[in-house]
Write a structure and sequence with these properties.
By secondary structure, the chain is mainly α. The protein is built from 8 helices and no strands.
Length: 179
């Protein structure tokens, strides 16, 4: 980040390459592909324009995800937009869910195989706030504390939201796609 703040273009390229896929997946999980790409570009533009505001009081990853989340919130506010969901990034070609880590004990609530249609239908039924925090948890590799800081929600609430979201999705998957 110090190199990037000193206008080193290669440092920006490294930051871009490190964060573009998870940020795109985050936006894509909550919006359509065109808007995901637009928000990704806007986020990196804001990162570039605000690079001098980074003060090393938090981790670079937390700072970038905060910018991304705020960018998404700005989009929702200005567009009065109902989220569109596309889940191709969460499923492979056979429709098997691939992002969620089955080694994480909380992740065991998910079924091993979920079709894209089931994932979309079930996720659409989650309240917006639950869906957003769940996607932050899945896509960002941020800790629960970092998600709490970004979302300005207590860590206990973050843990509860993630747990409840997973329980609701798991129950929906078991019933074949209906919450």
């Amino acid at each position: 980040m110090k190199l990037f703040q000193a206008n080193d273009a290669e440092a920006f390229n490294e930051i871009y390459e490190r964060f573009k896929a998870p940020l795109y997946s985050y936006f894509f999980g909550l919006l359509n592909s065109t808007m995901a790409e637009d928000l990704l570009q806007e986020t990196f533009l804001k990162i570039a324009l605000k690079r001098d505001t980074f003060r090393y009081e938090c981790r670079l990853k937390t700072w970038i995800w905060t910018i991304a989340k705020n960018n998404l919130l700005d989009y929702w506010r200005t567009q009065d937009h109902k989220m569109l969901n596309s889940f191709d990034q969460l499923c492979n070609d056979e429709g098997e869910e691939i992002i969620l880590d089955s080694n994480d004990s909380q992740e065991e609530l998910y079924l091993k195989k979920v079709t894209k249609a089931q994932l979309k239908l079930c996720s659409d039924e989650l309240p917006l706030g639950q869906r957003e925090i769940l996607f932050l948890h899945i896509q960002s590799e941020l800790s629960n504390q970092e998600i709490a800081d970004i979302s300005q929600v207590e860590i206990g609430a973050i843990k509860s939201i993630i747990f409840r979201s997973k329980v609701k999705l798991s129950a929906c998957f078991k019933r074949g796609g209906h919450l």
